[in-house]
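HUMAN:
Sorry, I am quite new to this. Are you able to go through these amino acid letters and fold codes? The numbers rather puzzle me.
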Amino acid sequence: MIFIENGISRKASWSHIQSLYEWDKPTRYFNIFTKLTDAHIVPSKIKKMKVKNCTQVFSRSVGNFMQCLIDAGSSVLTKEAEGTAKAFLFFAKLLDNFNGSSSHAQEGHELRCVTNTSPHHNFWTEAKIFLQTMKFECCTTKQHSVPPSLKNWVWTIFLEILIVLIKISRNEARDFFLLHSVSWCA
């Protein structure tokens, strides 16, 4: 996957998470990612359309740990995996963006309910660029593609955000709006 983050072109690869998973398998004394299984990581075993599995893989803990290993110069993940760590952190934040169930930020979760001054607004600008520049690269032909599901996802997310902003501007959402209560259209 290729994307642009903060004006820098980056590349993410599923092989990086596979390497991390193989390193963290429970054959050692303890494992860090206790919830991750082959059904999360091994392409032939991944259960399609399982949001729970997606959120467990694309999590802050996985992204942050990947970045820590890279920064420490670990042999598990090289500097080449930095794009993958950044992508995981982005998707964790994107998923977090729609989980606001409180008007106050929870520990470790910057995004909460949408208000006129909440950090969502800046994030949405970054997210739009990230998602619109995202392309997938074929391993063998190196050709780039943008699947229709990605285009539809971008539209669905930003149409819902537009609805929220209209409600806030009309004061229909009172002082804040709980994004997790938005009914998703597909």
Remarks:
- DSSP finds seven helices and four strands in the chain.
- The longest strand covers residues 2-5.
